[in-house]
From TrEMBL:
Family of this protein: Belongs to the WSCD family.
Entry keyword annotation includes Ribonucleoprotein: no
Organism: Drosophila mauritiana
This protein's record includes keyword ATP-binding: no
This protein's name: WSCD family member CG9164
Gene name linked to the record: LOC117148481
Length: 317
């Protein structure tokens, strides 16, 4: 009897530990819709976000928002609320604008092209949350609680995918394009830098530089496909935003993006967003003591960039 009691206890404990373990693992590894891609994306475009001064991006990093963020509630426009918030537009204009918003807008970009920064700016300027087809817990905790929301309750939805499946849910898209030279380094840092956020110089030299070379050539193809397939084959309306323009003419670009989204501009929020455009991110150049691109690589990257930028209608100096 006593033995059976012990056996029962032992089996129960094993089962409980097992279930607990499975739960723990599944909580940390929720399958996404794109299992092949890394689902963790931090602020790759903001190297300092990972700097040793901020060792863990998910802790203590609170963004001060110009206004409390919320979802778009299309069914129940609360007029009194909109009246005070969107004081530049009449309440009826606002609700009409919100209702006429097309189903869904994608924020399509190659990783490392500044999509998180653009989402940050848009959330500041509108007070409305932006979504994503991924669920990045780092972002979830640092001011992007609508990670994994992909419906009309968000302003737009981040994606790094392309192809007919990727754009099926969307009727509009903003294609954010960054110089591949920078985007590829940002992506390399993100994939290999861990919490510190930078690839160590050794990583560029791994297997006599072949690893990095292969990385650049793969990513360059991806960059090109991403850009061109959205620009050419997506059937909805598309707006191409160049990262450099966003950096140098932030307000002008934001206004034109909101115009594209048919979202009414609130001047007060816009001023606030521009004031806080860098937010907690201070962009700092990583000082690599060497140039990771060889002459041949750079020539190839620049050649590709010229072709793609040309096709996207941008003249290169
Ligand atoms: C949007 O998606 C979220 C999460 O999947 C869900 O909670 C919410 O109800 C959805 N909203 C609409 C308007 O479909
Ligand atoms: C885009 O369309 C062209 C034909 O117009 C097709 O050859 C190509 O495979 C398409 N690309 C994607 C990524 O769907
Ligand atoms: C998907 C897509 O449009 N790919 C094109 C990318 O650009 C090259 C030329 O630069 C084309 O050959 C591909 O078809």
């Amino acid at each position: 009897m006593a033995l059976q009691g012990w056996r029962f206890f032992g089996v129960s404990a094993t089962i409980i530990i097992y279930i607990g373990g499975v739960l723990f693992l599944s909580m940390n590894n929720i399958p996404g819709s794109h299992p092949k891609r890394p689902r963790i994306e931090r602020f790759a475009e903001f190297p300092s976000f990972h700097s040793p001064r901020f060792p863990m991006p998910s802790r203590k990093m609170t963004i001060r928002w110009c206004r409390d963020l919320k979802y778009i509630n299309r069914d129940l426009p609360i007029y009194a609320d909109y009246k005070s918030d969107f004081y530049t537009a009449l309440p009826s204009d606002v609700s009409a604008a919100l209702q006429s918003l097309p189903a869904l807008t994608a924020l399509a970009s190659f990783p490392g092209s500044g999509n998180t920064w653009l989402r940050y700016l848009l959330q500041q300027a509108t007070g409305i949350l932006t979504g994503s087809i991924y669920k990045d817990y780092g972002l979830l905790k640092t001011g992007f609680p609508a990670e994994n929301v992909c419906n009309s309750s968000v302003l737009l939805v981040k994606t790094h995918e392309w192809g007919s499946k990727a754009w099926a849910p969307f009727s509009k898209a903003i294609l954010l394009v960054r110089d591949p030279e920078k985007a590829i380094i940002a992506e390399f840092n993100r994939q290999s830098g861990g919490h510190i956020g930078f690839a160590s110089p050794d990583r560029y030299k791994r297997t006599k530089g072949k690893y990095w070379q292969q990385f650049v050539s793969n990513k360059l193809k991806g960059w090109e496909m991403m850009n061109l397939s959205w620009a050419r084959n997506f059937t909805g309306s598309i707006k191409v935003v160049f990262y450099d323009d966003l950096v140098h003419h932030t307000e002008r670009e934001l206004r034109s993006i909101l115009d594209f989204l048919q979202f009414p501009i609130n001047e007060q929020l816009m001023r606030c967003a521009i004031m806080r455009k860098e937010g907690i991110f201070r962009r700092k150049k990583r000082l690599l003591s060497f140039d990771p691109y060889t002459e041949a690589m750079r020539a190839e990257v620049q050649n590709r960039r010229r072709i793609v930028y040309g096709l996207l209608g941008r003249q290169e100096p």
